[in-house]
Design brief:
Oligomer: single chain
Number of helices: 5
CATH topology: Arc Repressor Mutant, subunit A
Largest sheet: 3 strands, antiparallel
Structural class: alpha+beta
CATH class: Mainly Alpha
Distance between the termini: 15 Å
Radius of gyration: 11 Å
Number of domains: 1
Number of strands: 3
CATH architecture: Orthogonal Bundle
């Protein structure tokens, strides 16, 4: 868990993306990019990293926090 916390907190955009999905719920990549004011290719890369770490799930192009992702997001938010 500490390793995942470090992975997320080591990158401001990873942290922002988890917080965004934690507060707004599921979204597609284009909407995430628009909300974060980050170019979509960067968001696509971050999404792929977070899916690989099992912090996000993807279904038909829509991303949402997994239970693990919710737990990490809450832990970071509490800091």
């Amino acid at each position: 868990m500490d390793e995942l916390m470090g992975f997320v907190t080591g990158n401001k955009n990873r942290q922002k993306l988890l917080a965004l999905l934690g507060s707004k719920g599921e979204m597609d990549a284009a909407r995430i990019a628009k909300n974060m004011h980050v170019v979509k290719p960067s968001v696509d890369r971050i999404l792929a990293e977070l899916v690989e770490k099992e912090l996000l799930s993807e279904k038909s192009g829509v991303y949402d926090l997994t239970d693990l992702g919710m737990s990490i997001e809450r832990s970071i938010h509490a800091i």
